[in-house]
């Protein structure tokens, strides 16, 4: 399937979340985006990672490692029942964001790509009755080259900022081909100016590599 067919076939919340992830990446943050939809599928909040941002809208975290995309979305909600809402995130929610989702009473989480550092995160629901009652329906990953792209974006941040850290070590063991692409995108001239282009242009340039990695995983 072509890139255009994959992109046009995505649900609107995915396209919105990916746009936010790209905005985060271009701004020097971890490339993760998230949105919340109501029971009718309408976007009611959008957010992104803001770990490197010097400014943020009122009430939103920035300039801290806990300024995650999901928290950026959830901070916009007034207290209430969001069991019939869906949070869409480009990367599987970590323990911090998972507990924020439980506390915010959001009923469904859809994630585009898995977070390999937090494999087994769903077992948190086995530890506590309150967490089990509030644990959202989780669906993902979406598969395909776009899934690979959503996993690549935050990895690029770790390759640049924590090249010897636990995330890079995990990918060296579990997904060396994606790590190799992240290192190429970080260092090679043909990828160096990707941040100056649109999300669409970046996907076009990376698509052959993304598709090759996806095919190898299939």
How would you describe what is shown here?
The chain is globular, with a radius of gyration of 17 Å. It has a 5-stranded mixed β-sheet with strand order 2-1-3-4-5. Helix content is 48%, strand content 15%. The relative contact order is 0.12. The protein is α/β, with parallel strands linked by helices and 218 residues long. α6 packs across α8 (176-187), α6 crosses α10 (199-217) and α7 packs across α8. The protein is built from 10 helices and 5 strands.
Topology:
Blueprint: H1 3-8, H2 12-26, E1 33-37, E2 43-48, H3 69-74, E3 82-91, H4 95-104, E4 106-113, H5 129-134, E5 137-139, H6 144-161, H7 166-174, H8 176-187, H9 189-192, H10 199-217
Parallel strand pairs: 3-4, 4-5
Antiparallel strand pairs: 1-2, 1-3
Helix pairs in contact: 2-6, 6-8, 6-10, 7-8
Content-based structural category: alpha/beta
Q: Averaged pLDDT, please?
A: 94
- What proportion of the residues form beta strands (DSSP E)? 5-15%
Give the CA-based shape: globular
- Give a quick account of the main beta sheet: strands, pairing sense, barrel closure: 5 strands, mixed
- The SSE order reads HHEEHEHEHEHHHHH
Lateral strand order in the biggest sheet? 2-1-3-4-5
Computed CA radius of gyration, to the nearest angstrom: 17 Å
For the termini, the CA-CA separation is 14 Å
Helix content: 40-55%
Unreliable stretches (pLDDT < 50, length at least 5) are none
Figure out the total of helices. 10
Give the number of DSSP strands: 5
In short:
The chain has helices at residues 3-8, 12-26, 69-74, 95-104, 129-134, 144-161, 166-174, 176-187, 189-192, 199-217; strands at residues 33-37, 43-48, 82-91, 106-113, 137-139.
